[in-house]
Amino acid sequence: ETGVTQTPRHLVMGMTNKKSLKCEQHLGHNAMYWYKQSAKKPLELMFVYSLEERVENNSVPSRFSPECPNSSHLFLHLHTLQPEDSALYLCASSQPKRGLDTGELFFGEGSRLTVL
Amino acid sequence: GDSVTQMEGPVTLSEEAFLTINCTYTATGYPSLFWYVQYPGEGLQLLLKATKADDKGSNKGFEATYRKETTSFHLEKGSVQVSDSAVYFCALSFYGNNRLAFGKGNQVVVIP
Hints:
The complex is a heterodimer of chains A (116) and B (112). By secondary structure, chain A is mainly beta. Chain A is built from no helices and eleven strands. In chain A, strands 2, 4, 5, 6, 9, 10 and 11 form a seven-stranded mixed β-sheet that branches. Chain B has 112 residues and is mainly β.
């Protein structure tokens, strides 16, 4: 069992739908991330939350809306997506040591999104 | 900006063959370097890392040495197994900052 759980594993939606991806981490970490993984492209960092505060938003379109209600849960709300948004969305968490990040992220298995 | 470049294309090799996956980086300063592995149907997991020049990271028979002079962090394994079939990602970050920059990844297929 992974320490980071993502649901759903697969999602198919139309361009006018509204859906959400959920991530839950059981590791006691205080930082969480959303990454987008597209074929033949580097992983793209979308959002970073530290202690439930958003600390980074890498120019992600507003049709992606993150939410972090507590340090264990992270959501990605989706609305009016485009076909090019089809990708694997990965959630990750980390825990700084002595106040500094170590570079080790713990990833979930991802949510495979298809936009029709 | 800071970036990581991995060799193009998938890698297919026979069991017990020697594996090398090239990784070079561009960064101002001295980043920490990582290899992450993604097995089929799973998320990424840290394979090994090195935090300063000439450090060697190793795990599960894989090794990579931080080469400042060539800005490289090539991944090697002397004898691969079918279970090593996965996608391998090179990444960098700066100490204290978990904003990893990843390469495109290399699909490795090991055939019996």
